[in-house]
Amino acid sequence: MRAAQLTAWRAPLEIATLPDPEPAPDGVVLRVMACGVCRSDWHAWTGADPDVSLPHVPGHEYCGEVVAVGARVARWRIGDRVIAPFILACGQCPDCTAGNQTICATQVIPGFTGPGAFAEYVRVDHADANLTALPAQMAPEIAAALGCRVTTAWHALTGRAQLRGGEWLAVIGGGGIGLSALILGRALGARVVVVDVVPEKLEYARKLGAHAVVNAAETDAAEAVREITGGGADVAVEALGIEATTVTALTSLRKLGRMVQVGMPAGDHASMSLPMDRIYSGQLAVYGTRGMPAWRYPALLDLLSAQSVDLRPLITRTISLSMASDELAAFDHPAPPGVAVITDFTS
C-alpha cells in the first residue's frame, strides 16, 4: 500500500510502499476514504509524543470501507462504510464495560501506538466494540472529523462539562476542536465566545455563529470574556494544550464554572503553572478529556440529524497524501481557518 511515513522528527513525510495490513482476529482492515490532519499529528511529527517511535505512519482521524474481516468479528462485513474513534478500546475490561472506553488499559491508537491512516489502508482492532456505521448521506471528509475533532468536542461539552442551553461557552482556540465546539455548543443552545490570535479565524468563527470573538493578541482575553458574559463563562474549552491558553480558559470563568482541557499538553507544556488560587476561590471544576467512548456516537449522530447541524464549514481544504507534510509544518505557526483532510491517497 501507499503510505506517508515519518522517518525523522520534523522532516517531510516520505511516500513509501508498505505491506498491506492484516486484520487481527477481532479486527478489520479499512480502505481509508478520508483522514484528517490534526494538531495531535503535529505533536507526533515533532517528537513530543512518547508513544511514537520511528519509522511511523501518522493519522488517527479517519473513516473507511471494510476490506478484510477477522474471524471473531460479528458486526461488520466487507463493503461496510464505517467511522472509527481514534481510541480503539478492548470492549471487555472493567473500564470498558462501565462505559469508560477512553481509559481502557489495553487501548490501541492508530497513528500513535500503531500504524495510522496516512495510508491507503489501516488496521482497526476490536472492531465490534468501536466501529459505527457511516451515515449514508455524510461525505467521507466530514465523517473523518467524527473520529477525533467533533467527537472530542462533543464529549468535552456533554460528557464532561454538561453544557446546558443558555449558558456561556468560552472556546479558547479557533482550530478544528474550537470550531467543532462552537458548532456543537450553538446546537446545544449555548452562547459562544471564541478566543484566538488570528483575525481570519475569528472572522470565520463569527460567520459560523459565534456570539462574540476576542483577539488575545490585542487585549486581555480572559478579562474580555468576563466582560462580554457579564461575569465569566459557565464553561470554557481549552483547545490548544499550552499554558497561556489554559490560564486564559481558567480565568475567563465565573465562580462555579467548569473548564475542560481538550488541547493535548505535550513537550514543554506537559507541566504547567496554573492559578490554583482562582480554582480554589472560584470553586472551579477542571476536567480532562481525551476522545469519546464509541457508545456515544448515536447521541451525537441523532443531534446532527435532528437539528440539521452543518459540519461542512469545518473542512476548508481537501488534499492529497503528498501534501500532508505541508499541513503538519503549518502547525508551527498560526494556521488558516478550518481543517485539512486527505481524500486523495494516490498522489
Automatic annotation (TrEMBL):
Domain named Enoyl reductase (ER): which ranges? 10-342
| CDD domains in UniProt | Zn_ADH6
Q: Which SUPFAM superfamilies match?
A: GroES-like, NAD(P)-binding Rossmann-fold domains
What cofactor does this protein call for? Zn(2+)
* UniProt KW keywords: Metal-binding, Oxidoreductase, Zinc
Q: Which Gene3D superfamilies match?
A: Medium-chain alcohol dehydrogenases, catalytic domain
- Which InterPro entries does this entry report, sorted A to Z? ADH-like_C (IPR013149), ADH-like_N (IPR013154), ADH_Zn_CS (IPR002328), ER (IPR020843), GroES-like_sf (IPR011032), NAD(P)-bd_dom_sf (IPR036291), Zn_alcohol_dh (IPR050129)
Please verify whether the record's keywords include DNA-binding: no
Q: Which family does it belong to?
A: Belongs to the zinc-containing alcohol dehydrogenase family.
- Protein's recorded name: Alcohol dehydrogenase
